[in-house]
Design goal:
Blueprint: H1 2-10, E1 16-23, E2 30-37, E3 43-44, E4 51-52, E5 54-68, E6 71-84, E7 88-91, H2 105-115, H3 120-126, H4 131-147, H5 152-161, H6 164-170, H7 185-192, H8 200-211, H9 223-230, H10 236-252, E8 263-272, H11 277-283, E9 294-302, E10 307-315, H12 320-327, E11 336-339, H13 346-355, E12 358-363, H14 368-376, E13 380-385, H15 389-398, E14 405-413, E15 419-424, H16 436-442, H17 445-457, H18 468-500
Parallel strand pairs: 2-6, 8-11, 11-12
Antiparallel strand pairs: 1-2, 3-4, 5-6, 6-7, 8-9, 9-10, 12-15, 13-14, 14-15
Helix pairs in contact: 2-4, 3-4, 10-18
């Protein structure tokens, strides 16, 4: 049976081989697959894990495996008992299941992964299994994660916060954080990485009671002391820590890509700030008669891996393209960046070419080149974009090429019957068929969904300061608190998948 070939090739078990597969007479929708030890292999003791001589065999057991083609699959094996000098006579351990579990590790991972997407009841119904098995699968994955937690990222972060070099780099003056204070530099950083839900004073009491209730519970750290201490700190400290985490993630994780590109998206948003003359003067306001100041945010977001690479914080009057231009410093050759309307400009295209970064943008339909493709009825065309007057002035100012640029226009029909035009540097028609672009542009929604997370779950507008530096600290500390658990989860999830499918 082909199933045996598939299992022996894709689900190899050290010391064992899949031998035979057959339908179960009493249950025609079930398949049993038998396993046998490889020739000359020795059984491993379930106690100490060492190879031991055989003693006898136990009755056959069935282990439920991932379903194939709608059939339930069971692995059938009679465990050997071994004579161990340390553990006595015990059953051998098998690599596809743990302890007395009747579910294979691969099947438990499979059920647990589905249980993240739909309800446990639906998972049980879909795969014709019990709710209890789904529960045990989730429990197994959670317990495995707790036992194999990798705290290296947190340890590296903590060590850096406590380092003298990091302190000297991110304090405002050489004399800052030199006196023996309760609110030290590391404690200040740690406190600001805690999401503040209540008043600052209440959060300070809770924080210090947690970290050292034997000493600090009797010592009060006032709101005024916190506000004074944070003004000695540069918000660049949080940016550096976040960059370190992102670098660690991309080095260690097997990231998801789109057509071999790291798929990034850029989008902006505006958020209100507390009423303050300093904030109003620095950041401006959304409308001339508005009372509250507003800050403009822009994110560079990896939509396939759900991580923010860069956050720009500027005044409300700053243009989106200028903020996006700064994002390009966080890109690398081969990246593909997706933009909405408001970004297209020939000079802006040229900066992507200089960085060897590809792009895809939604373009307004008023330009002559766009009107031409709409009138032609074509769905894809490669055309020359001339450098018009505004782009010419910017190119001359920045001392970059003023020539035309060859780009691709793609027409995408919406369910409403309307058409959108995309402009892209992906001019290879064979490598990037026209049919790919609708899905490509749709994936940009990931960055917009992330803003919802920032505003609703992380409460981004709950600022703890009315100073410019304090606002910058809050925003970048918030981004770091979002990045850290995400990086840990992604790394742990990939680690578990590798572990669960290893030969």
């Amino acid at each position: 049976m082909e199933l045996i070939t598939i299992l022996n090739q894709c689900y190899r078990q050290k010391g064992f081989v899949f031998q035979d597969a057959s339908f179960v007479d009493r249950h025609p929708h079930e398949i049993e697959v038998s396993l046998v030890p490889r020739k000359h292999s020795r059984a491993n003791c379930s106690g100490c894990g060492n190879p031991r001589p055989g003693y006898d065999r136990l009755p056959e057991r069935r282990y439920e495996f991932i379903p194939f083609w709608g059939f339930k699959v069971f692995l059938v094996y009679a465990k050997r008992r071994v004579q161990c000098d340390e553990c006595g006579v015990v059953a051998e351990t098998v690599p596809w299941a743990r302890g007395k579990h009747q579910l294979c590790d691969a099947y438990m991972l499979y059920l647990a992964d589905w249980a993240r997407k739909i309800s446990w009841k639906e998972v049980a119904q879909r795969f014709r299994t019990s709710w209890e098995k789904v529960f045990h699968s989730v429990e197994y994955v959670v317990n495995w994660g707790l036992e194999h937690r990798d705290m290296n990222d947190i340890t590296k972060l903590t060590n850096k916060i406590h380092s003298t070099e990091f302190l000297e780099k991110h304090r405002k003056k050489p004399t800052d954080f030199t006196r023996n204070r309760t609110l030290t530099f590391p404690r200040l950083m740690s406190f600001m990485l805690n999401a503040l839900n209540g008043s600052i004073q209440a959060e300070l009491v809770r924080f210090f009671n947690v970290i050292d209730d034997s000493y600090l519970s009797a010592k009060s750290v006032s709101t005024a002391a916190f506000c004074k201490a944070r003004m000695k700190l540069s918000h660049q400290a949080f940016i550096e820590l976040n960059d370190d985490l992102i670098h660690t993630f991309y080095e260690a994780a097997n990231i998801d890509k789109w057509q071999w590109h790291r798929l990034l998206a850029v989008d902006g948003s505006v958020t209100q700030l507390p009423i303050s003359n300093k904030l109003l003067e620095h950041f401006g306001k959304a409308r001339p008669h508005a009372a509250m100041p507003h800050v403009r945010l822009s994110q560079l977001y990896d939509v396939k891996n759900n991580i923010t690479l860069d956050l720009q914080v500027e005044s409300h009057s700053t243009g989106e393209r200028e903020m996006a231009l700064k994002h390009l410093n966080k890109t690398q050759a081969g990246d593909l960046v997706v933009y909405d309307r408001g970004y297209p400009a020939v000079w802006f295209y040229k900066y992507h070419r200089l960085k060897n970064v590809d792009f895809c943008m939604r373009i307004v339909q008023s330009s002559n080149v766009v009107k031409a493709i709409l009138e032609s009825g074509k769905y894809s065309d490669v055309v020359d974009f001339p450098c018009i007057e505004k782009s010419l002035r910017r190119c001359r100012k920045d001392k970059i090429s003023t020539g035309s640029q060859r780009l691709r226009l793609v027409r995408v029909d919406l369910p409403s019957g309307e058409s959108e035009i995309l402009v892209s540097s992906l001019t290879d028609l064979q490598a990037y068929p026209t049919a790919l672009f609708a899905d490509l542009y749709h994936q940009r929604w990931g960055v917009e969904e992330d803003y919802k997370v920032l505003k609703s779950r992380l409460n981004i507008e709950n600022y703890s300061s009315v100073s410019v530096e304090g606002v910058l600290q809050d925003l970048h500390a918030m981004l770091l608190t979002k990045t850290l658990p995400l990086v840990q989860y992604m790394m742990q999830n990939k680690k578990f998948k590798c572990y669960s499918t290893q030969p």
